[in-house]
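>> received
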Amino acid sequence: MESDNLETRRRYREPVAEVDSEAYFEAYRDLLEAYPAADTGRDHYKTSIEYLQEIAEFGFGTEPEAFVEHLREKHSNRPAFLDELEPAGY
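>> returned
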């Protein structure tokens, strides 16, 4: 949970999320919020969306959807990111 690396968090997702899924969701969400701005390009944005889809798997009601809307507003100056959200169902 102390890692600032999304890939590390992804690797330990199942065992950590089983223990405290809410804390995992919050920590993952905090890192993911800045991720789309860390780089540009559709491949980077597609990776961002893969992470979003993973947190949606935990079934936090509407929280993941609200988070995606927050990202959509925060990164509204990144049209390629917004384009990539559409085919992913966001």
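>> The helical segments are 6-11, 13-19, 21-34, 42-56, 63-74, 79-85.
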